[in-house]
Amino acid sequence: MTRRALSVMVVVAVIGGVRTASAVDIEGKWGIGAGLFTGGGEASLIRGHSNRTAYVFDVRASGATDGESIRLSGLPAVGGNSNQWLVGAGPTLRHFMRPEADLSPYGDVFVTGTYSHRHDSTGPRNVHQWAVSTGVAFGVEYFTRWHCSVAAHSGLFRVTYADLKEDIGTAPGLESVTDTRWSFDLGISPMLFARVYF
Prior knowledge:
The protein is mostly beta strands. About 10% of the residues lie in helices and about 65% in strands. It contains one helix and eight strands, in the order αββββββββ.
């Protein structure tokens, strides 16, 4: 065998061994996802049920603190602050529309439970909210040959039932107000996610 023929065989073997990007068959696989640039913590645990369907458990946490200065007429400024945080979790059913493709659109149906708390030192005022939401989301996921992907994801429609309790003042003059409300949200709120399957 000549040196040139050997070189050609090596090149053909190397090229033949290089896989191009292809859709990950998610059936039976686990996955982990995380939100990118979301301003809070967004994470998902994914379990492939079939090549088209996945069960997802989503977790979300966020928080913020603000300092403020309040000035009343004729009085020195009074310092104040506010903080708020939210935690939520719930299951999602995901359906891929083109599971054999590198770039596959998908649709989600989800249920999420959340608890949020807000405190304002001026007043003082505390707001507690328990909520349950259900709705539909959609996205498009690009799979790579390294079993990881990037997805553009957005909510589409959400219905929320919330139970609120607001405490104003301190004991013994504490005033509590409770309320329940429904809300309906329709719109696009795009986010980016990175996902890994194993």
